[in-house]
What does this fold into?
Amino acid sequence: MGLLGVAMRRGGAKPGPGAEGGRDSRGAPPPRRVGMSVAEAREILGVGPQADEAEIRKAHRELMKKVHPDTGGSGGLATRVQEARDVLLENLRR
It folds into this structure.
């Protein structure tokens, strides 16, 4: 379904518990994210395993038009789309 579909189905990206200040109700920091997998990045951008650089960049550009904060999206979604593009482009270079 991709990141955009999931976010739209859920009614947009909403901050989780303790979003103000980044801590939960006990004062603990949120769990750290190690990094995005290549499979997750492909799912977010909606591209297959054989996607080349041009296809990745095109998918990124089209999705950013929909999720960018300047067009009514959220910073969190835009960040995930950026990260997905970076992960896939880095994976191509290896």
The first helix runs from residue 2 to 9.
